[in-house]
């Protein structure tokens, strides 16, 4: 009986420490040290309205914009409350069919024939805001055709937005789709003189 009581007390103490105290302390420190990131790195327009996040991918389907990686989140794409991959393995026929369907769609859209894997395969979280530089460059012909913006200018936009590997070794070169599309909007405004 003494052992059961001790186990229950330890369970409750550890539950409070690990389930309540630790998350509260970590969240408090994050709010103090990194308040913008702790709130989701939200981006606001000139009126103060939230227009997106730097950290969470968003669905862009208009052919005049850069498209993000596919998302495998539950309920709807890029659902931040249901982060996760499809859990389909490389030999799964459903995954193979999804990849072929995405390839065919991208090629038909004018995205190009040389498609990097990040344009046809979802990430583990389903929320990645970034794509590879190659993924962005592959989309330039389609975007130029849809917007009338010179391909060279769009390429400059991509190269101006490259994020390099963290600490120069973690990850690869990438670009944030949200910022690329904000840049495209700015280019359109400049060309229209507004």
Unreliable segments of 5+ consecutive residues: none
Report, as a whole number of angstroms, the end-to-end distance.
78 Å
Helix share, percent: 40-55%
Strand content: 5-15%
Mean pLDDT across the residues is 87
Major sheet details: 3 strands, antiparallel
Write the element-wise H/E pattern from the N-terminal end onward: HHEEHEHHEEH
Q: How many domain units?
A: 2
Radius of gyration over C-alpha positions, nearest whole angstrom: 22 Å
Structure classification: mainly alpha
Q: Count the beta strands.
A: 5
Order of the strands making up the biggest sheet = 3-5-4
Task: Sum up the structure in keywords.
single chain, two-stranded antiparallel ribbon, globular, about 190 residues, mainly alpha, 2 domains
Task: Describe this protein's structure.
By secondary structure, this protein is mainly alpha-helical. The chain folds into two domains: 1-39, no CATH class; 41-192, no CATH class. Helix content is 48%, strand content 8%. The protein contains six helices and five strands; from the N terminus they run ααββαβααββα. It has helices at 2-33, 35-38, 93-109, 133-147, 151-160, 177-192; strands at 42-44, 50-53, 130-132, 162-163, 174-176. It has a three-stranded antiparallel beta sheet. α4 (133-147) runs antiparallel to α5.
Please sum up the structure shown:
It contains six helices and five strands. The chain is mainly alpha-helical.
Q: Which helices and strands appear, and what pairs or packs with what?
A:
Elements: H1 2-33, H2 35-38, E1 42-44, E2 50-53, H3 93-109, E3 130-132, H4 133-147, H5 151-160, E4 162-163, E5 174-176, H6 177-192
Antiparallel strand pairs: 1-2, 3-5, 4-5
Helix pairs in contact: 4-5
